[in-house]
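Teaching soon. Invent one.


***
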Amino acid sequence: ISEDTDALTLDTGPLRLTIDRKKPFTLFGRAQERGGPAVAGGGLEYVEGKTGTTYTAGPPKRLFLEYRGPLRVTVRAEGQYEGPGDCRLGYITRLTAWAGRTDIRVQHRLANSNPEQIYHANVKSASIRLRHGFGAEAEARGGAGRGGGRPGEGGRVWLHEGTVTRDYRAP
């Protein structure tokens, strides 16, 4: 693990991830698997239901190690979505990596937290896009076995994670 003013970098051995502090949040600014490019960009966005306006995740306001152990590390990123008009939603993302492994656990939440005023968000859709270089054998899986698949070369996988009661009080 290394940190500087521009980024936080995780190295599991076969996987090296760089998470940018100053650029729009895309999960990984750069990712390399066994020295070769693994992710070549992407984005996090949501579409507001009434206006159809698209908002994109801005740079993290906070980026820190939430857990650091000998075999596992969890990075937490918090920030705001950006776009035209009155964008009020933020994000909280956790990225967990394990020593010696190439898989990453991603927990991403839209955050609607304003103690000053109640705001009812109307979200039509929310997405995480990654342009990967893993080839046809890439795999995406939803939590608790709820969805997934192989996106193949340039393909897509749709995962839907609904509201889970156990997560209501976990930011």
User: Anything to note?
Assistant: The two ends are 24 Å apart (CA to CA). Confidence is low (pLDDT under 50) at residues 165-171. DSSP finds no helices and twelve strands in the chain. The CA atoms of residues 52 and 124 lie 8 Å apart.
